[in-house]
Amino acid sequence: MPWKxxxxxxxxxxxxxxxxxxxxxxxxxIEHTEQAKHIIDKWIPEIDVETVLDVGCGEAFCQDFxxxxxxxxxxxxxxxxxxxxxxxxxHVLENDFHFLPDGDEMWxxxxxxxxxxxxxxxxxxxxxxxxxxxxxxxxxxxxxKFWLFLGRNHYSVVTDSQAKFLLHRSGxxxxxxxxxxxxxxxxxxxxxxxxxxxDEGYLWAYREENLSWLDMAExxxxxxxxxxx
Length: 229
Fold this sequence. Notes:
Blueprint: H1 2-5, H2 9-19, H3 30-43, E1 51-55, H4 63-68, E2 72-77, H5 79-87, E3 92-94, E4 107-113, H6 122-132, E5 133-142, H7 144-147, H8 160-170, E6 172-178, E7 184-191, H9 203-207, H10 224-228
Parallel strand pairs: 1-2, 1-4, 2-3, 4-5
Antiparallel strand pairs: 5-7, 6-7
């Protein structure tokens, strides 16, 4: 197909370099740490995994939680978080999680907590995690009803139905869901063969979710001067 020959990945590389200036450090806090530990302790005993790749791991604060369950851990992060994690002796790699250096099916489990919303191309990120995964994905996303959709480096905040569509399209079958916390959607997924049926359609996902709250959401107001103080 002629259009395939016209893809210029040099431009994409330039766009990603430009977006790199949006990256910001994310030191751990008590609430996020407690919620991360909660979902790890809940779901790790349910699946047969020995290795985990923590994509968008921040300062790799989850390493101890996974190692408490006997897992071999590595985190992936960028910027100041990587520097801090290295000083703390964490097992981390400085890398873009869309372009992982690992071979196919290198990790039993991919763990992505509050990471996918930072992706400018979330379905491709999920496909890349699918490539390097052998078995499972734990995906934790911010609920837009609590956080709304905007924020620095938050390009892909999605609703539950959109998350399910992305997971389905990229080859992940949802085994369990936990949406009990007001902040988060949580999905335990299993890697399956990716299939696409152009006649199937995907409207089923959107019909299942009540999105009436969107009309009542307060608009986000970005104050650049306040951020720079």
